[in-house]
């Protein structure tokens, strides 16, 4: 079962600040892009609105530590690792490597925790178990990869 996924992206001009460095908020967008690509690689989408009740996966925690700047046109590898899997939540670690640098260098590390929720008819959300068709396709990465 998969516990990791790698995606690559180029830093676009619109993602940089006045100093020419990728704005910190875009690291969170890159994490979400890699997460969604991971789901697609497993055969499902992040959207579960055709279920009864519809499911969602809001973020309950997000963090990022920055080590080296990323700049316009840098090629970035986003390495996703499943950090923790519980009955109602998942945590992912992300490592950003600048592949344009020689040798490639780590630019940042992030963590995102999501919780599965069922949307009620009144619009409220209630924590729910992650459906087996998702949970059964994921495993936690070996501890030596999570350091």
Q: What kind of sheet is the major sheet?
A: 5 strands, antiparallel
Q: Assess the beta-strand content as a share of residues.
A: 35-45%
- Structural domains: how many: 1
Provide mean pLDDT, rounded: 95
Q: Kindly report the CATH topology.
A: Thiol Ester Dehydrase, Chain A
- List the uncertain runs: none
Tally of helical runs: 2
Across the major sheet, the strand order is 1-4-5-6-3
Topology pattern, helix = H, strand = E: EHEEEEEEEH
CATH fourth-tier homologous superfamily:
Hotdog Thioesterase
Number of strands: 8
Distance between the termini: 20 Å
Oligomer, anyone?
Answer: single chain
- Overall, the morphology is globular
Q: Percent range for helical residues?
A: 10-25%
CATH class: Alpha Beta
CATH architecture: Roll
Element layout with pairings:
Layout: E1 4-10, H1 25-41, E2 55-56, E3 59-66, E4 75-85, E5 89-98, E6 105-115, E7 117-119, E8 125-127, H2 132-135
Antiparallel strand pairs: 1-4, 2-7, 3-6, 4-5, 5-6, 7-8
How would you describe what is shown here?
The chain is mainly β and 147 residues long. The chain has a single domain, classed as Hotdog Thioesterase (Thiol Ester Dehydrase, Chain A), CATH 3.10.129.10. Helix content is 14%, strand content 37%. It has two helices and eight strands. It has helices at 25-41, 132-135, and strands at residues 4-10, 55-56, 59-66, 75-85, 89-98, 105-115, 117-119, 125-127. Strands 1-4-5-6-3 form a five-stranded antiparallel sheet, with helices on one face. A three-stranded antiparallel sheet has the order 2-7-8, with no helix packed on it. A hairpin with a 5-residue loop joins β7 and β8 (125-127). The longest helix is centred in the N-terminal third of the chain and has 17 residues, at 25-41. The protein is globular and about 50 Å long. The model has no long low-confidence stretch (mean pLDDT 95).
């Amino acid at each position: 079962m998969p516990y990791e996924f790698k995606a690559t992206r180029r830093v676009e001009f619109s993602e940089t600040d006045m100093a020419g460095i990728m704005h910190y908020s875009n690291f969170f967008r890159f994490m979400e892009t890699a997460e969604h690509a991971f789901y697609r690689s497993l055969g499902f989408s992040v959207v579960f609105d055709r279920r009864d009740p519809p499911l969602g996966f809001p973020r309950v925690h997000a963090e990022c530590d920055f080590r080296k700047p990323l700049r316009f046109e840098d090629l970035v590898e986003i390495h996703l690792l499943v950090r923790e899997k519980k009955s109602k939540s998942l945590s992912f670690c992300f490592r950003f490597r600048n592949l344009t640098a020689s040798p490639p260098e780590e630019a940042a590390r992030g963590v995102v925790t999501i919780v599965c929720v069922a949307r009620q008819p009144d619009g409220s959300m209630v924590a729910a178990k992650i459906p087996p068709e998702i949970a059964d396709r994921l495993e936690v990465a070996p501890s030596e990869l999570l350091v």
